[in-house]
Amino acid sequence: MSIRVEIDDNLDLKKSMEKVKEKTFWMFGSNELWRLSQSYIPYGASRNMARNVKIRGYVGRGEIEHVAPQAHYQYIGKLMIDPATGSSFAKKDAKKVYASPTIYLKYRSSKASREWYKAAWPTQGRKVIDAMQKYIDSGRLRLHG
Fold it and tell me: Beta strand pairing status for 97-98 and 53-58?
């Protein structure tokens, strides 16, 4: 599962960031978002889900991939059932479908939620941007020349 967060500010950040070609910068930003979002990631299904990730940097974007089998289900946060039985428990090869009407999963932690990176962004996004600015200010990102 790959997560992509789009920043919806009044900044022309997208145009400015297109100039940044260094993959390590984007990997750094993704790592910061992952680190600052830990309390938003549900632990009920698997204590390893939040930590079983692959963080990558590409030109112009970063990526956080949760590789646990239930990551997509937890991120979407909608109850899935076996249509034959109506149960959330299903045989190994059963094809599950979303419950109708939609039932959202409930998480134990007060901050944990579906779409956890989107949920974390209003409180953690500024910290991610500030950390990325410090990365640039440190000179590690060679923007000139």
Answer: unpaired
